[in-house]
């Protein structure tokens, strides 16, 4: 057999072996670890201001912001681009140009469920109502069939715990340390 024939046979054997055994065991282990890590980061459970445990997709990428007081926290965390809809109060105030130009989805008291569903958020951040906590439960019940989660936060006063919850599920805990 000539050298060129030997090289051709060797290449053919390598091709056949690589199709039968496409990955070495080290590569399989690496892929398995990466898959486990990806699965481990697909959800996060937080406790909102109402004391409800809410399991959210992680990190959250699409938000409707019905809690207009939370706008400053959204801005500080640098996640205005994740907001797909806002409260009427936030839109009217015009204090946050990047947010006030987003579609209006009602208010925390009177959410526009059709608009919210159309925007396909993963999470709706709403207010912790001081009378009328049934508003949060009603919104959760109406949006659950669409896999939209409700999180009640209270930002009317500087509440570090609420800010930490928001940073946690938006994958911005490192940024939070700067404040």
How would you characterize this protein structure?
With 179 residues, the protein is of the alpha/beta class. It contains nine helices and six strands; from the N terminus they run ααβββαβαααβαβαα. The strands form two sheets. Strands 4-3-5-6 form a four-stranded parallel sheet. Strands 1-2 form a two-stranded antiparallel sheet.
SSE layout and pairing:
Blueprint: H1 3-20, H2 25-40, E1 43-47, E2 53-57, E3 63-65, H3 71-77, E4 83-86, H4 88-93, H5 97-100, H6 113-119, E5 123-127, H7 134-143, E6 149-153, H8 160-169, H9 173-176
Parallel strand pairs: 3-4, 3-5, 5-6
Antiparallel strand pairs: 1-2
Describe the structure using short key phrases.
single chain; 179 residues; alpha/beta; 4-stranded parallel β-sheet; two-stranded antiparallel sheet
> What is the oligomer described by this structure?
single chain
Q: If you compute it from the alpha carbons, what radius of gyration comes out, rounded to the nearest whole angstrom?
A: 24 Å
Number of distinct helices: 9
Order of strands, widest sheet: 4-3-5-6
Please identify the structural class as seen in this structure.
alpha/beta
Describe the global form: globular
Low-pLDDT residue intervals, each spanning 5 or more residues? 16-21
- Tell me about the largest β-sheet: 4 strands, parallel
Strand content: 15-25%
Beta strand count: 6
Give the H and E element order: HHEEEHEHHHEHEHH
Rounded average pLDDT: 76
* Cα-to-Cα separation, first versus last residue: 73 Å
Helicity range:
40-55%
